[in-house]
Model the fold of this input.
Amino acid sequence: YAKRQHEQGFKYSGDTVWQQEFEEMFPYDETNDQLNAIKDVKADMEKPVPMDRLICGDVGYGKTEVAMRAAFKAVMSGKQAAFLAPTTILAEQHFETFQDRFQKFPVKLARLSRFVPKSEQKKVLTQLKNGELDIVIGTHQIVGEKVQYKDLGLLIVDEEQKFGVGVKDKLKTLKENLDVLTLTA
Done:
């Protein structure tokens, strides 16, 4: 953690008009805690050091919305975002939520999990490497050896404590210059 504070990170731009529109489309009223978390995450992303932020909240707190706003900010600054979920079912749920929220914007999403046919997985891997995808959501496959990102800027990890040692070691190597947002209950 101390080493990361001295690393050069990517400084994201301020909010765009699309960012404001995206946030205004949230169908619920944000809580004060949620608004503070969003403000803190954005402030971290706009600093030239890698973000390492933990969002802790009960189910229904709105952690996924915080993550989506961070992912949107990353994409608006030309970076890719990856959302790592501990189970296939959770990855599917997050993918559906992201699809619903991002559908009115030119953001390209994909998923990687055992539910995705092998032929589609190959296509997703090629698109990530070529920068044709903005956000990928999936299980441990998104940090696998076969996955190459063109310009990954943000890694969102849901329930990191549920991953095994192998995935956690891979996350450590990925995290060096990335902004990392960890969600937990």
